[in-house]
Specification:
Layout (H helix, E strand, L loop, with lengths): L1 E6 L7 H17 L4 E3 L24 H6 L5 E9 L4 E9 L2 E7 L24 E2 L4 E4 L9 H8 L4 E5 L13 H16 L2 E5 L2 E4 L2 E4 L3 E3 L5 E4 L6 E6 L3 H9 L8 H15 L3
Amino acid sequence: MRVALAQTNCQLGDIEGNLVNTERLIKEAAAQQADLVVFPELSLTGYALGQVTDDMSLPLTDPRLAELSRHGPDVVIGLLEDAPVRRHNSAVYLSAGQVVHNHRKLYLPNYLIWEERKHASPGQRMRAFDTAHARMATLVCNDCWQPMLPWLAAQDGAEILLVPTNSASKTTAGGFDPAPYWHDLLGYTARMQQCWVVFVNRVGDEAGARFWGGSQVLDPWGEVVARAPEWDESLLIVDLDVRAARRRRREMPLLQEARLGLLRRELERLINESGDD
């Protein structure tokens, strides 16, 4: 399977311009026989939604979305989804003009300069899903920092974990720098969940944040097999041997003893004790 990582510098609030650039990159990936093109989180709208006055949300029925996947490759695109009641930070998997899967970001940061809960509601489920190429799961940025979610995706059979992201470098001297955390986290996730990890970050400056890029692919042994440059736009083409995930899981069956009943009982106890459902 050939995957294209589209490390873009999207423009805040410019959906039409971002769509034009998105389509250009999809066509470029198609010319290189890519099966799937993955774009960063909120790649159609930009991240700092509080800085724009217009409503940037799109329904999944918007025909412009369907057209993105009519150039050959499947597409994962990030957008602010206009749902019937709420809006969601969503990553949509499109194939041949159809929505195959929609992941609504589950864990929305609301600290420091990040204010996602002002503009979106959290999703309510995480599911692996089948495509023509492999069984996959999507986790949007901060979702991947929650240890149970990659594990749940692997238990649901995901062989490829897609991680569209908007990760910015530290904004002040001595501030928190997420890049080293991401490097450690991605390696750990790929190694322990024994799956391919496709991490796609954006670049560019927006509302005081500078996004560092560094998109990469890791194999089921936790090794980085390809990495895009930091700070610059890039279209990185990578070939994945999907069967490697199953081979690794047979060699070292870390996921086999899930003890789901044990987890259910302990989670129910914690929910009853804390009231956090």
